Amino acid sequence: AQSVSQHNHHVILSEAASLELGCNYSYGGTVNLFWYVQYPGQHLQLLLKYFSGDPLVKGIKGFEAEFIKSKFSFNLRKPSVQWSDTAEYFCAVSRAVNYGGATNKLIFGTGTLLAVQP
Amino acid sequence: GAGVSQSPSNKVTEKGKDVELRCDPISGHTALYWYRQRLGQGLEFLIYFQGNSAPDKSGLPSDRFSAERTGESVSTLTIQRTQQEDSAVYLCASSQGLAGGYADTQYFGPGTRLTVL
Q1: Long-range CB contacts (< 8 A, 24+ apart) of B70-75?
Q2: pLDDT < 50: residue spans in chain B
Q3: What SS3 state is found at A118?
Q4: Helices (H), chain B
Q5: CB proximity under 8 Å: A 87-116 to B
Q6: pLDDT tens digits, residue range A57-90?
Q7: Are A110 and B48 inside 8 Å of each other by CB?
Q8: Which of A102, A103, A115, B57 is exposed most, by the fewest CB atoms within 10 A?
Q9: Are B103 and A51 a contacting pair at CB < 8 A?
Q10: DSSP single-letter state for residue A8
């Protein structure tokens, strides 16, 4: 069965520090990979996604993630965080299927709560 | 355009009562998903609709849970005889339902926070 591990449950950083959040998944086939973010009081929003092609993907607000297939990883990075990045971050994976009717259900990690101190 | 909407935003109920949660997907999205997020845990998949049919119900935790979708639009998640362990945020997501699901992105609603006393 698919599973997603986020190694950091709670991260505290000062503004301008660099960020890297780990995400590893277990699944032997082709996958789609996502990072979602939930800002305080708001609903889940897509931060970035990987389907195919360049393994380094860029998302909104200066975030990027790198898919390393050999390590089953999709770590999220940002070179310099801001106070407004305080949020909970979720890594998710779905099977990349190519037949109709198949579920694309997302398997989520347990989330990483990021607190950025001004 | 309008995003995914859910109602109610909050629901408090007594153990043993039935509840209905509603989801309005983004217009034109044929795929609809329900997830549940219990305190301190990640989101867990409940059910997937493609159009009005549900090819994957594998995440429904018990036969007290059911869902339907009509008109390839609105979906209702029903929990019968609620238990305290049903307390969670129930999230709905929709996607275009691209052929085979490839490159399909899910967009989430704000959720319904269910509290069972």
Answers
A1: B72/B30, B73/B24, B73/B25, B73/B27, B74/B22, B74/B23, B74/B24, B74/B25, B75/B22, B75/B23, B75/B25, B75/B32, B75/B34, B75/B49
A2: none
A3: coil
A4: none
A5: 90, 92, 94, 96-111
A6: 999 999 999 999 999 999 999 999 999 999 999 9
A7: no
A8: A115
A9: yes
A10: -
